[in-house]
Amino acid sequence: MNICVFLHNMYLPGYKLPSNIIAVPDLLEVVKDANCLVFCIPHQFLPKTLQQIKHHVLPDTYAISCIKGVDHDENGKLRLITGMIYDELNVDCSILCGANVANQVAAGEFAEATLGYRVRDHAEKLQVLFNTPDFCVTLVNDPVGVEFCGSLKNVIALGAGFIDALGYGSNTKAALIRIGLMEMKKFTKMFYKGVKNTTFFQSSGVADLITTCWGGRNVKCATLFAKTGKSWEELEREVLNGQKLQGTTTCKEVYNMLINSQLDSEFPLMVMIYNIAFRGYDPKFILEG
Hints:
5-stranded mixed beta sheet; 13 helices; 52% helix
């Protein structure tokens, strides 16, 4: 319990965890009798975690990811987190994303989330697990769309941070969000067939994008990056108190995929965000993306 309280005080001070949550440091002990696994860790740490538990998961287990990020395979193609979990554990994996700022959820303020699924029976069980009167979970049979919305919005949020650093107001940020949503939709549908247009209007889509572009770690660090010139690594250490940025990593993955596919000219905003974040471009060029 000391570990649990320590992490909680670090990230959400002032809120008590429910008494039925118990910290178990041994991963194998956690999974040995479980038939539902919930993954909520920075995606950089997922491969090692999966390797540790892959031979200890029960055959009838299913999973859900709350991770917002992407990885890549050996050919440079983006790899979904739910796909990584399925490939390593051979279990069905759903995805939960939405406009869910942690301290507001902890305070009991009303919020929505989108649960993208492949197996309806698993989704209905997970909906019962997560849905509460102040946390409304909607089921969508489009896990790829939900997952990409949850990942790509962090890239656009870096651009929103650059906008804040330049001192621009709501008009400019609204324009960035609109263009960003269009590029998110275009990117997702270009690389993955069958993604539904309606998914981008769920909580995991436009709502999460708006919320993330007005607050959160990616906007905060991008603003300081543009103002101070400090590196992303420095800002993580100084500002995030042990947490990790998802937007910077996803930005690199997306850019590499666009370059490898020779499609960078199709996504001027995402490419400009990368150029500012990693190639030394002046943040004022965000308006030229």
